[in-house]
Design a protein that fits this description.
Layout lengths: L1 E4 L8 H4 L6 H10 L1 E6 L5 E11 L2 E9 L8 H15 L4 E7 L3 H9 L3 E6 L2 H5 L5 E2 L2 E2 L3 E7 L26
Parallel strand pairs: 4-5
Antiparallel strand pairs: 1-2, 2-3, 3-4, 5-9, 6-9, 7-8
């Protein structure tokens, strides 16, 4: 498996990205302003993706992390998040941010296991920005939980060794 930057001539993997964000309009807006990275088995279609978006000086936001439903639970989301952290360091960012719904229990655990810390709550975010109600895990999704990570700026670990540099074993991937 490898992670590569989407060529701007390629169509966005909307079916995949909509797994993490139900608004096609929102996805198209931020995907065109950021970098869309794709996870695929050699020569195959994308089975995972993430979008990295510059938001402020020295700050990037991970705005969408998606893994095909039939491939979830195998460490691929973690691999994408770790790649986004590595990419952000390579770009010289000081901070990487991510936001997820209050009802996104699995995502909240994943981000914290990867080193993010809760930075705040954007109350009623999903009520203000989405027309249709969102319910996950039997919980209404109304608030955005904001998480952030301070990134190393120099020295060991600050550079990037290229897309897909994390081995499957390092990322805890089950290749099945």
């Amino acid at each position: 498996m490898n992670i590569r930057l989407r060529d701007n001539k390629e169509p966005l993997p909307m079916e995949l990205l909509l797994l993490a964000d139900p608004s096609a309009e929102m996805v198209a807006s931020y995907a065109e302003r950021g970098e869309c990275w794709l996870l695929a088995e050699d020569g195959g279609p994308p089975i995972g993706a993430y979008v990295l978006l510059p938001t402020r000086p020295a700050t990037l936001e991970l705005v969408n992390v998606a893994v095909a439903e039939e491939r979830q639970g195998r460490g691929l989301g973690k691999r994408l998040v770790l790649h986004a952290i590595e990419r952000s360091c390579g770009l010289g960012a000081a901070t990487l941010e991510v936001g997820t719904g209050n009802s996104s229990i699995g995502q909240l655990a994943l981000y914290q296991r990867c080193g993010f810390r809760i930075a705040g709550v954007d109350r009623d975010f999903f009520l203000r920005h989405y027309d249709e109600p969102i319910v996950e895990n039997g919980i209404p999704c109304v608030d955005m939980i904001r998480l952030s990570m301070d990134l190393p700026r120099s020295g060991a670990g600050a550079g990037t060794s290229g897309p897909g540099s994390f081995s499957d074993r390092q990322a805890g991937i089950d290749p099945r």
